[in-house]
User: Which sequence fits this backbone?
C-alpha cells in the first residue's frame, strides 16, 4: 500500500476512532460526575444558572481591563491563529468535502488564494506564540511537554498543508500523505492533552460562571 | 526473421526518402517536448537503426491497449512505427494463430536473441501456479519468464501490466501482479493508463529505437515526457478550482458552465498523465473536457481509490461504522470512569476518619 | 477538431479567442532572425509546445504572411512548407491524415526536410543507372 492510501485509509480511520473515543470518554466522564452541591441559598437577584454560565463563556473572550495590557499579545495573537485555523480548516474546499463525507452536508468555500494567505498568517502567528512562550520567563517556567507537543501537533498540519498546496519539498502525493498523517497524530493526541480545551473551556467557564453568579461574585 | 538492413535502406527500397524520418522525428520530438533540434538526431538514429523485433504478449487484459495503439490519429505518421518495428508476435494483429503463432514467437526469440523488445499487455496471475490465465496450456507466468529471458527491454503497456490493474483490484482472486514484480533486473518501461494515450506508446518505442536506450523514467518507471505532470497542474479548468467554482453534481449549473469537477470525484491532483495536454483521439478531448472527472487510471490501485464519484478528500474505509462503534466505546468508558469516581467518593465519605486518611 | 455536441455544453477552450500568446512568439522569431542574419545560427520554434489557440495561430500566420517560396511534401502524409514574408522565417506544417500532426517555425536558410540527403542521392544513382542500362539494352526496356 502506498503512503497516501495508508494515510487516507487505515491511519485516518484509526485516528478518528481514537479521537471520538477519547473526547467522549473525557467529556462524558466529567459531565456525568455528581454536580457540585452548593447548599447555601443563592444571593438575592442572582441570575439563573444558564445565564451566568453564558455570561462567563462569552465575557471571558476578552480579558478584564486590569489584565488587558499585560495580556494584549497573547489575546490578539491567540485570536489571529485561532481564526486563521478556523478559516483554513472550515473554508477550504477539500476540507469541506472531507467533513461532508462524515456529516452529510456542506457549505460554500472561500477562494484558494485567501486560504493560502490565511495559512501563512496562521503559521507565522503560531511561531510567534512559541517564541513568546520561550522568551517570557514566567511562561517558560510553567511550560511542560504537554504545551510543546500540543503546539507542534497544531503547527505541523498548517505547514504540511502549505507545502502540499504549493508542491514544495516533495511530490504532491507524498506531501498530501504527510499532511493527512500529521492530522492523524493531531487527532490521536487531541483528547489527552491541552488541545482538549477546545471542548472543555465551555464547561469550565460555565461552571465558574454558575458558582460566581449564584453567590453574586463578579466574574 | 533476421533484419540486417537499416531502416533507412528499408524505406529507400520502398521509394521513401530520409524525409520520412525527419517528419516522423519532428512529430515524436514535439510529443515528448524535446527541443526541435533533437528531431535531427532522432531521425539519424532511426535511419541507422535496424528494424526492431517486437514480441507483444497479451495476458490478463481487455485488449484496450492494442485498440488504443491501432487507433492512430495521424495514421500516415503513426503507422510508420509498424514499419520501424517488426511486430513478430501480436495475437490481435498477426495472421497466424494457434501453434503457428507460437512458432513465430519462438523463431523471433531465437533469431533476435538479446535484441528484441517484449511488450506486455495485461497482468499475470500467480495464484495456484498461475493457472488462471493460460495460452495453449502454457501459463502466462511461464510464457513471460521464457520470453523475457533473452529480451533487450520490456515495455509494460497499460495499467494492468504496469501495476496490476483491474485483475489486481480488491479482492484479487487470481493473485494478479504487475510485470515489474516478475522480470528481475530487465530494463523496464511502464506506460500506464487504462488505456494509455497511443502517442505515449508510440513515442516511447520510437525513442528506444532512435537512441537505443530508455527515456527518462519517474519513480514508477513511467516516461517523464508523458507522465511528468499531474492532470490537475495542466487542467484548463484549474482556475475554477482556485476560485472555488465547482460542479456539485453532473449536469447542474456549474457543470454546464464547465466548472471544476473536484466535488464529483476528479482524481486529477494525484494522477500523472498527458491527458490534459496531448488529450485523446488526436487532441479532440479528454474526460474532464467532456464533463467527467479524472479516474486516475494511470496510477497504481486506482480501482480501489475510494470510488470514482467520491471526492479525493473522502477517507478510505468504512468510517461510518467504525466511528459509531468508537462513540459507543467512548461513552461507555466515560460512564464507567464517572461510575468508578462516584463509587470511590461514596466509599471515601462513608469510611470512618482515621490518621491514614 | 472539437466535436459538434460540445457547443451545447461548457466552452472548453476559447479556440476563437485571441489570448495574445502570439506576441511572445513573434518576439522570439525576431530575436532568432536577428541572430541568423548576423551569425547564420539557425533556430526552430515548436508551435505544439505553446498554449496557442486556433485564433492565435491564425493571427500569427496572417502576420507573417507568405513570401516567394512554397513547397508541398508528399511523404508519410502531406506537409506544407513556405517561406513567410520575412526572409529566413519558414513555416513547416506536417499533416498526418486529416489533422495537423506537428507545426514548426524554422529560422534558417532552408528547412532540413527540403534538402536532399546524400544517402538518398546514392540510392537514386543506382536506380538511375539501372534504368539507363535497361533503356540502352534495347526497345524492350521500359522507356518511361
Assistant:
Amino acid at each position: 500500500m502506498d503512503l497516501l492510501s495508508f494515510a487516507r485509509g487505515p491511519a485516518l480511520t484509526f485516528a478518528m476512532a481514537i479521537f471520538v473515543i477519547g473526547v467522549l470518554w473525557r467529556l462524558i466522564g466529567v459531565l456525568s460526575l455528581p454536580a457540585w452541591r452548593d447548599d447555601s441559598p443563592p444571593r438575592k437577584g442572582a441570575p439563573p444558572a444558564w445565564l451566568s454560565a453564558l455570561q462567563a463563556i462569552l465575557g471571558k473572550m476578552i480579558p478584564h481591563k486590569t489584565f488587558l495590557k499585560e495580556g494584549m499579545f497573547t489575546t490578539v495573537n491567540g485570536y489571529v491563529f485561532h481564526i486563521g485555523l478556523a478559516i483554513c480548516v472550515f473554508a477550504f474546499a477539500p476540507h469541506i468535502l472531507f467533513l461532508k463525507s462524515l456529516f452529510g452536508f456542506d457549505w460554500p468555500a472561500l477562494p484558494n488564494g485567501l486560504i493560502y494567505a490565511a495559512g501563512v498568517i496562521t503559521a507565522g502567528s503560531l511561531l510567534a506564540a512559541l517564541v513568546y512562550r520561550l522568551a517570557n520567563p514566567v511562561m517558560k517556567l510553567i511550560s511542560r511537554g504537554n504545551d510543546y507537543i500540543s503546539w507542534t501537533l497544531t503547527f505541523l498540519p498548517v505547514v504540511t498543508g502549505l507545502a502540499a498546496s504549493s508542491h514544495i519539498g516533495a511530490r504532491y502525493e507524498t506531501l498530501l500523505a504527510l499532511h493527512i498523517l500529521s492530522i492523524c497524530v493531531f487527532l490521536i493526541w487531541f483528547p489527552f492533552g491541552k488541545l482538549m480545551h477546545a471542548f472543555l473551556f465551555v464547561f469550565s467557564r460555565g461552571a465558574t460562571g454558575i458558582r460566581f453568579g449564584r453567590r453574586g461574585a463578579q466574574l | 526473421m533476421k533484419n540486417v538492413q537499416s531502416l533507412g535502406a528499408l524505406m529507400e527500397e520502398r521509394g521513401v526518402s530520409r524525409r520520412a524520418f525527419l517528419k516522423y522525428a519532428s512529430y515524436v520530438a514535439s510529443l515528448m517536448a524535446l527541443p526541435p533540434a533533437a528531431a535531427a538526431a532522432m531521425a539519424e538514429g532511426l535511419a541507422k537503426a535496424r528494424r526492431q523485433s517486437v514480441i507483444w504478449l497479451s495476458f490478463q487484459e481487455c485488449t484496450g491497449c492494442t485498440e488504443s495503439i491501432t487507433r492512430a490519429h495521424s495514421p500516415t505518421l503513426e503507422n510508420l512505427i509498424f514499419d520501424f518495428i517488426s511486430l513478430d508476435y501480436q495475437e490481435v494483429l498477426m495472421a497466424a494463430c494457434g501453434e503457428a503463432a507460437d512458432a513465430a514467437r519462438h523463431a523471433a526469440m531465437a533469431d533476435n536473441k538479446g535484441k528484441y523488445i517484449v511488450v506486455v499487455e495485461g497482468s499475470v496471475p500467480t495464484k495456484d501456479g498461475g493457472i488462471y490465465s493460460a495460452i495453449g496450456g502454457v501459463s502466462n507466468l511461464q510464457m513471460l519468464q521464457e520470453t523475457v529471458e533473452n529480451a533487450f527491454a520490456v515495455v509494460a503497456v497499460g495499467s494492468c501490466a504496469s501495476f496490476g490493474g483491474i485483475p489486481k483490484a480488491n479482492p484479487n482472486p487470481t493473485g494478479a501482479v504487475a510485470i515489474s514484480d516478475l522480470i528481475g533486473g530487465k530494463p523496464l518501461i511502464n506506460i500506464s493508463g487504462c488505456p494509455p494515450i497511443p502517442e505515449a506508446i508510440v513515442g516511447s518505442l520510437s525513442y528506444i529505437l532512435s537512441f537505443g536506450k530508455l527515456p527518462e523514467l519517474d519513480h514508477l518507471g513511467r516516461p517523464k515526457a508523458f507522465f511528468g505532470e499531474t492532470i490537475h497542474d495542466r487542467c484548463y479548468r484549474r482556475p475554477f478550482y482556485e476560485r472555488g467554482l465547482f460542479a456539485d453534481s453532473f449536469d447542474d449549473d456549474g457543470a454546464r458552465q464547465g466548472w471544476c469537477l473536484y466535488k464529483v470525484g476528479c482524481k486529477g491532483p494525484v494522477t500523472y498523465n498527458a491527458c490534459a495536454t496531448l488529450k485523446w483521439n488526436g487532441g479532440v478531448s479528454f474526460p474532464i473536457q467532456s464533463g467527467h472527472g479524472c479516474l486516475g487510471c494511470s496510477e497504481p490501485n486506482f480501482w480501489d481509490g475510494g470510488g470514482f464519484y467520491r471526492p479525493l478528500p473522502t477517507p478510505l474505509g468504512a468510517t461510518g461504522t467504525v466511528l459509531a462503534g468508537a462513540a459507543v466505546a467512548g461513552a461507555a468508558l466515560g460512564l464507567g470512569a464517572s461510575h468508578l469516581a462516584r463509587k470511590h467518593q461514596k466509599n471515601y465519605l462513608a469510611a470512618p476518619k482515621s490518621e491514614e486518611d | 477538431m472539437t466535436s459538434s455536441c460540445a457547443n451545447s455544453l461548457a466552452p472548453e477552450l476559447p479556440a476563437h479567442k485571441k489570448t495574445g500568446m502570439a506576441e511572445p512568439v513573434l518576439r522570439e522569431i525576431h530575436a532568432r532572425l536577428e541572430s541568423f542574419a548576423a551569425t547564420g545560427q539557425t533556430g526552430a520554434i515548436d508551435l505544439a509546445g505553446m498554449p496557442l489557440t486556433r485564433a492565435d495561430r491564425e493571427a500569427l500566420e496572417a502576420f507573417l504572411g507568405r513570401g516567394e517560396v512554397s513547397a508541398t511534401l508528399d511523404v508519410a502524409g502531406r506537409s506544407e512548407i513556405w517561406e513567410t514574408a520575412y526572409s529566413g522565417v519558414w513555416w513547416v506544417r506536417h499533416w498526418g491524415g486529416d489533422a495537423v500532426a506537428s507545426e514548426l517555425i524554422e529560422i534558417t536558410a532552408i528547412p532540413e526536410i527540403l534538402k536532399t540527403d546524400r544517402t538518398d542521392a546514392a540510392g537514386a544513382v543506382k536506380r538511375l543507372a539501372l534504368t539507363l542500362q535497361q533503356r540502352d539494352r534495347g526497345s524492350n526496356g521500359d522507356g518511361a
Remarks:
- Chain A touches chain B at residues 1-2, 4-5, 8-10, 12-13, 16-18, 20-30, 32-34, 93-95, 97-98, 101-102, 108-113, 167, 172-173, 176 (CB under 8 Å).
- The first helix of chain A runs from residue 3 to 31.
- The radius of gyration of chain A is 20 Å.
- Residues 107 and 142 of chain A are 41 Å apart (CA to CA).
